[in-house]
Write a structure and sequence with these properties.
heterodimer, A: 153 residues, alpha/beta, four-stranded parallel sheet, 6 helices, globular, B: 123 residues, mainly alpha, two-stranded antiparallel ribbon, 11% strand
Chain lengths: 153, 123
């Protein structure tokens, strides 16, 4: 299989199947990204359908980023931050929690299932939790099917 | 542009808007020390207020986006957005109050409304 086919998630085996989901994961620099890194160095197996974006704090994830991701065709967005009271910037994750609650309501208004957006607390030592979250989220997104933007309904 | 795309654009404008951003940033104050009148609200009440404000702003931004493309009557706005006409009238009254919308003439018996031109930033 060519590297391009690998990159686009298309293979001969996958011909005729539903396309692989596109999942965007925002990880905070201090906890979740380290958790993701731990999952990687521990060689924990995860579905390869997600792309990670490192941000300094989960509160750096502007609601606009999430909406733009859905607008550009993302099937799911996961925001991972430090556990409550563990934020490196004191209260960033509380702000994120409020924003995500609002965004889950907003995305419903244009026909997206609120489960396409998820907030999860992952600390630097929780590589396994990161892996489980990714597997669970990918399965949820696969169950929900392609984004309504792809379906064109 | 499809209605979904229009709604996403309106949602982007909503989350950039002052009202929603201000409300999101004031949870601690509103639920602990209270507002300028000392009125403290509960967490569920705060959530309800934010969701309601966001829903209203989303509809208003949807209408504003539509009116930015040219003058529209209430009927045309209803056809384009699917928002009930009574709600559209309420939103237009509010938008006129904030000078975001102005009357741009008449089309038969119906007034035409258009989005007020944005003021240029100084400096």
């Amino acid at each position: 299989m060519s590297s391009e086919a690998v990159q686009h998630g298309t293979s001969l085996e996958g011909a005729g199947k539903e396309p692989d989901p596109k999942i965007l994961v925002f990880c905070c620099n201090w906890c979740s990204y380290a958790g993701a890194d731990l999952a990687g160095v521990s060689r924990l197996q995860m579905p390869p359908h997600f792309r990670t974006i490192r941000v300094m704090c989960s509160a750096r994830v502007d609601p606009e980023f999430v909406l733009r991701a859905f607008q550009k065709g993302a099937d799911g967005v996961l925001v991972a931050g430090c556990h409550p009271a563990d934020c490196h910037y004191i209260g960033g994750n509380y702000r994120t929690r409020r924003r995500i609650a609002l965004l889950r309501m907003l995305i419903q208004q244009f026909g997206y299932d609120p489960d396409r957006l998820r907030l999860e607390w992952v600390s630097a030592g929780e590589g396994e939790k990161f892996q489980k979250t990714i597997i669970e989220f990918t399965n949820n997104i696969k169950e929900l099917g392609p984004s309504p933007m792809h379906r064109g309904d | 542009m499809s209605l979904r795309q229009a709604k996403i654009r309106a949602a982007l404008r909503t989350v950039e808007g002052e009202r929603v951003r201000w409300l999101l940033g004031k949870k601690g104050q509103l639920t602990t020390t209270g507002n300028v009148f000392g009125e403290v609200i509960t967490g569920p009440r705060y959530d309800f207020i934010v969701q309601k404000a966001a829903a209203v702003e989303l509809e208003r931004n949807l209408l504003l986006n539509e009116m930015e493309q040219g003058p529209r009557t209430v009927h045309e706005l209803h056809d384009a957005t699917g928002i009930p006409k009574q709600e559209i009238v309420r939103h237009i009254i509010a938008l006129k109050k904030w000078r975001l919308v102005e009357q741009a003439g008449m089309k038969g018996q119906s007034p035409l409304y258009s989005a007020a031109p944005k003021k240029k930033e100084v400096g």
